[in-house]
Design goal:
The structure is a single chain. The chain has 108 residues and is mainly β. The protein has a single domain, classed as OB fold (Dihydrolipoamide Acetyltransferase, E2P), CATH 2.40.50. It has one helix and eight strands. The strands form two sheets. Strands 3-2-1-7-8-4 form a six-stranded mixed β-sheet, with no helix packed on it. A hairpin with a 7-residue loop joins strand 5 and strand 6. The termini are far apart.
Amino acid sequence: MSSWENELAREFKKRDNQSPLGAVVGTVITVDPIKISILGDRVFLTADMVYMCSSLINNINRSATIQINGGTATDGKITYKEVLKAQDQVVCLPADGGQKFFIIDKVV
């Protein structure tokens, strides 16, 4: 085999044996619209590239039963506000071969 054939075979091997990207920590750049930086600012995730877990979305209403100081339980709603802020760090898990990401939770 000549050197160019060897080099071509090495390039095919590199392409076919890429390590899959696992969970990464991203940094929230902006919240509305969402923009998250991953891989040392080499990749920026935008709204069309992410699936956000509902616990991270601002102004989502949740039904809850609240009991204060052992008193009567009351049904009500909880509204999450300012869940994510710029500079928060989040867990990002790739889906669809790395074309989209699940944004799982904040890292503290």
